[in-house]
Amino acid sequence: MSAVFVSLEGSEGAGKSSLMRVIRKWLEDRGDTVVSCREPGGTPTGEAIRDILLDCNRSGILPLTELLLIFASRAQLLEQIIKPALAGGNSVICDRFVDASFAYQGGGRQQPLEQIKQLQQLVVAETMPKLTILLDVPVAMGLLRAQKTGAPDRIESEQREFFERVRKAYLRRARQYPERIVVVDASARQSAVRKQVLSILEQRL
Amino acid sequence: MSAVFVSLEGSEGAGKSSLMRVIRKWLEDRGDTVVSCREPGGTPTGEAIRDILLDCNRSGILPLTELLLIFASRAQLLEQIIKPALAGGNSVICDRFVDASFAYQGGGRQQPLEQIKQLQQLVVAETMPKLTILLDVPVAMGLLRAQKTGAPDRIESEQREFFERVRKAYLRRARQYPERIVVVDASARQSAVRKQVLSILEQRL
Fold first, then answer.
1. Is B79 within 8 Å of A64 when comparing Cβ atoms?
2. A42, A129 in Cβ contact below 8 A?
3. Fewest CB atoms less than 10 Å from the CB: which of A8, A145, B27, B69?
4. Are B54 and B154 in contact (CB under 8 A)?
């Protein structure tokens, strides 16, 4: 088996965390050494950037600043973790990656997609996931689920319309890149979602 | 008098702090309301980014991450402070601005200038200083002076060759933009430097 780069995407309450473990286990079961990471964050510098981004007291962060901070965290993660891991023959699973910028900063914050594409070219270039699983869930259901996991951070505190735009932008990305992004109906029960994800892994990897 | 945007540039030990006050006073004496700021930093979010950038324990920050963090801080400063101040008829003096990215990240860290230009276009666009005063001082003298002001931060801890490249890149910028950037010999005594700066302000503004 050759090392693969898989990203898992989805908005609040989509159930990413438990599926990260499912994907990890599937890859390990086939013999891969797996490096898991998350965005924003995943490196000491990235986690310090994450703290700025999610701090509820920072209501003044402007959309372009947010976008640049996320790509700063991504640059660090790519060079320090993702690229070395792949080069060393390991598989990588990332909890959110560049599609999240198109969804949250592009859709949610309505930053021009052209800006995001430029930064993607500058920072990510060719190091794209081979497979991206998008957990799609209606906004109301996602927010309800997310409420149960604790106090919301700065981004989770956004209004419902924000998350509707995020969801729409995610689904648009999936239509644009069907060879890479697979949408999973995450409103189903956990066991059914898990089954869907496993079947995607079997088919695609 | 119309509001102006002035930036002050120079590497370690060039004497920027005291000249910020000289420029401020000159502008106030002619009747301007003056907003001073610094980079990286100058806003609550920018200062949090500055803390990451200057933290000596963060030896792992990669050049591209550093560049993106500086432009994130700059985006915030431009939208929250510089643009509103200028729009309100105030003059702005900034302790370092975009030329510093070409000097430190371009010269010092040897990041491709094309990347810096792209980010400049994305973040700064037309909001460039009318006048930039570059305090030039031989590296050995600058470092000696800077040592007296306390423990060095992450960037001040760089090797001498780094600062030689920074100085060269600053001087290259000055040759490229002679209509905007004026070089001041900051190795002279303080009173002579001050006089040079005042005479530049008289001639250029």
1. yes
2. no
3. A145
4. yes
Q: Sort out which chain B residues have CB atoms less than 8 A from A72's CB and list them.
A: 65, 68-69, 72
Residue with tokens 């989805």: A10
pTM: 0.95
pLDDT score of B42 more than 70: yes
Question: Given an 8 Å threshold on Cβ–Cβ distance, is B115 in contact with A122?
Answer: yes
pLDDT, tens digit, 9 for 90 and up, residues A69-102? 999 999 999 999 999 999 999 999 999 999 999 9
Q: How crowded is the C-beta side of B153, counted as CA atoms within 13 Å? A: 9
pLDDT in tens, A123-180: 999 999 999 999 999 999 988 888 887 788 888 888 899 999 999 999 999 999 999 9
Domain A5-204 has CATH 3.40.1160.10: no
- Residue B98 C-alpha, separation from nearest chain A C-alpha, in angstroms: 16
* B182, two tokens: 């004026």
CA distance B165 to B106: 9
What lies within 8 Å, CB to CB, of A12 at 6+ separation is A142, A143, A145, A146, A156, A163
Check CB contact under 8 Å for B64 and A44.
no
List the domain boundaries for chain B. 5-204
| B85 within 8 A of B62, measured Cβ to Cβ | no
Structure tokens at B107: 């010269």
Q: What are the contacts of A111-118 at 24+ separation with CB within 8 A?
A: A111/A63, A111/A64, A111/A67, A115/A64, A115/A67, A115/B122, A116/A67, A118/B118, A118/B122
The alpha carbon of residue A1 is apart from the nearest alpha carbon of chain B, in Å, by 31
ipTM over 0.85: yes
